[in-house]
Amino acid sequence: MDNETRTLLAGSLKEMFEGEGVDIEAALAELGWDDVIDAYPAATELLFAEHGRALAHSRSLDAVIVRGLADVLPAPRGMRAVVYPLPSPSAGLTSDENSIDGVVLTGLDDVDELIVPVSTTHGTGVVVVPVADVESEPVGSIEADSTMVRVRGNRVPTVTAEASADWDRAVASGRRALAAEIIGACGAALQLAIEHTSSRNQFGQPISRFQAVRHRLSEAHVAIAAAQGMLDAAWADLDPDTATVAKALAGRAQAIATRTVLQVCGAVGISAEHPMHRFVERAAVLDALLTPHLIMVEQLGSSLLAGAPILHVTEIDTA
């Protein structure tokens, strides 16, 4: 994608998310988003970066996962939603051939079918479950406006095909998208922190001029920039391992940025009147999806200690 196309797409997406009460799925369809993704797969990054900055709720992540599973899914019989594994220390699937347990991002009001990855004796399968076959309840979340629901059920269709490779490919795509969304939310939070510290005065000058504050803000900026560099590399090679590292670094950036913005903003950063808490909460929730960064780092380290080969070294462009 050339710079002119990238700028045009980013501007269109920013304008779309700034609309009042926008229906994101309908707006993307009007933009011809499926054709855009076919021509420019990395445009997904632009969408999710704006999604994070806008604190939007949509089924855009579901669309990414479904696209990755296209070869193993039957034709849809209505509106679909993806059931994501619950965050767990094993970072594995939380649904199996006997029971379903996971989260749906945007509620079930207009959903007809659920796409559920399940653990099998041979690996991973993907089943389609009627929404009437599960029970649901709101997820207790740090986000006040969370739309997530937890779904559980015991009526699991028979897994007819092994789909480990397809699920791994879909997860890699989802992790790249989530990394972009986390980076977008963290970037917006950092900008709020810069604006706050530039306008708040102590000892006759903005606190942004104090070295300690500058060091904290710089630390967050470096973490976000490092995550962005790794994400660029992940889009360049489309390798699942690189996608894993990209999301892990995005989650790390979230932890560093959260610590930074709350420290430099003080009490106002956690007040309901200030928007900062919403970006902090959203980024933390996004980190938990498709494996939290601390678990991912532990898994990567364990694999290396167990003798897993380092297939390649990714060079991050810092220009």
From TrEMBL:
<dbReference type="Pfam" id="PF00441">
    <property type="entry name" value="Acyl-CoA_dh_1"/>
</dbReference>
<protein>
    <submittedName>
        <fullName>Acyl-CoA dehydrogenase-like protein</fullName>
    </submittedName>
</protein>
<dbReference type="InterPro" id="IPR050741">
    <property type="entry name" value="Acyl-CoA_dehydrogenase"/>
</dbReference>
<dbReference type="GO" id="GO:0003995">
    <property type="term" value="F:acyl-CoA dehydrogenase activity"/>
</dbReference>
<dbReference type="GO" id="GO:0005737">
    <property type="term" value="C:cytoplasm"/>
</dbReference>
<dbReference type="InterPro" id="IPR009075">
    <property type="entry name" value="AcylCo_DH/oxidase_C"/>
</dbReference>
<keyword id="KW-0560">Oxidoreductase</keyword>
<dbReference type="InterPro" id="IPR036250">
    <property type="entry name" value="AcylCo_DH-like_C"/>
</dbReference>
<keyword id="KW-0285">Flavoprotein</keyword>
<dbReference type="GO" id="GO:0033539">
    <property type="term" value="P:fatty acid beta-oxidation using acyl-CoA dehydrogenase"/>
</dbReference>
<feature type="domain" description="Acyl-CoA dehydrogenase/oxidase C-terminal">
    <location>
        <begin position="172"/>
        <end position="286"/>
    </location>
</feature>
